[in-house]
Specification:
Layout: H1 11-16, E1 22-27, E2 32-40, E3 46-54, H2 57-63, H3 70-73, E4 79-86, E5 91-95, H4 102-119
Length: about 130
């Protein structure tokens, strides 16, 4: 009888636990994208909602205030997207807010997955 190894939380697990939380993704070509995590697949491709793409990290913080319309500030960048998929091979860094507790988020995610697993667990036949 083989035993399964316990699943160890990884970076992908941590990112999946951040669904619905705003993050900033720095790309390898020095572009920053700020948005809410919609989903993260097993290859670390990230889908962001309400994303803002810009060239400067400071601009991302400035544009969150919505004090000015994006097109009034810059003509080419920043650009807003309703949904944007970021390929894992293009990611350099992922910036999280200072108030995000990763350990707590991963713990809640694991509890949620256990509940889902229990809901769909097959019963043994007699």
């Amino acid at each position: 009888m083989s035993r399964r190894k316990a699943k160890v939380p990884t970076l992908i697990t941590a990112l999946q636990a951040l669904e619905g939380i705003p993050i900033t993704v720095e790309l390898r070509n020095d572009i920053y994208i700020r948005g809410f995590v919609e989903s993260v697949d097993n290859r670390m491709n990230i889908v962001l909602q309400d994303a803002i793409m810009t060239k400067n990290f400071k601009d991302v913080e400035f544009l969150e205030s919505d004090a000015m319309e994006v097109d009034e500030v810059y003509l080419d960048l920043p650009t807003r997207f309703e949904t944007l998929q970021v390929s894992s091979k293009n990611i350099r860094f992922i910036h999280l807010g200072a108030n995000i507790d990763i350990a707590k988020a991963v713990h809640y995610r694991e509890q949620y997955l256990q509940k889902v697993k229990q809901m769909y667990k097959r019963t043994m036949r007699k």
